[in-house]
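Protocol step 4 of 5: obtain the predicted structure for the target chain.
Materials: sequence only (see below). No template structures provided, no constraints applied. The aim of this step is simply to have a reference model before the mutagenesis design in step 5. Sequence pasted as it appears in the construct record:
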Amino acid sequence: MKLYGSLTSPYVRKVRVLLREKSIVCDFVVSDPWDEVSVVPKLNPLGKVPVLELDDGSTLFDSPVIIEYLDSLKGENLLPAPGDRRWQVLRWQALGDGILDAAVARLLETRRPEELQSSATISHQESKVACALEFLDKTSKAKHYFVDDRFTLADLTIGVALEYVDFRYPHNWREQFPRIALRLAGLSTRPSFAETLPPGMERAVDAPH
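Step 4 output (structure tokens):
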């Protein structure tokens, strides 16, 4: 199998974290979909990463689809079997992906020429991140993991999302949500997170102890 994507895409990173967590062998091909010579548009008609090319030459795209496929291949599932726990994990996955979507939208807006940027759009995306963090803080009472007292897709997605906020939208959210900061500090020590850290990103070290 081959995984196509960029080193800084959080959606690609989610897949890379899962591959590392489950020790699944998969070649990683760095390919920027914006590059004129990129093969990504040939593999995914939407021209987006990540793209997973299977051994038979067929492809899967969109990170939730790729992750569910890979999760089914080996070891204990990070996405539980149908039932209440599965819905809990999927809810946290949706929240994490929503944080990513907002952070990415904010980033793209800030990269437009200054005279074309919309402060309302930037504020709107920032408010989504803030509301998601507040929901996370109020709703999740577990000490270490979100569901089942074990690492699941919920922890993977939320962890990647929070570190992406640090990477592309750095602000002092830890002071307002110290419990979330402490949870992220624990996730960040996992080899799967450490080995997939985007180039140029420095982890915050001011998490409470």
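Step 4 remarks: The chain is about 50% helix and 5% strand. Residues 2-71 form a domain with the Glutaredoxin fold (CATH 3.40.30.10).
Proceed to step 5.
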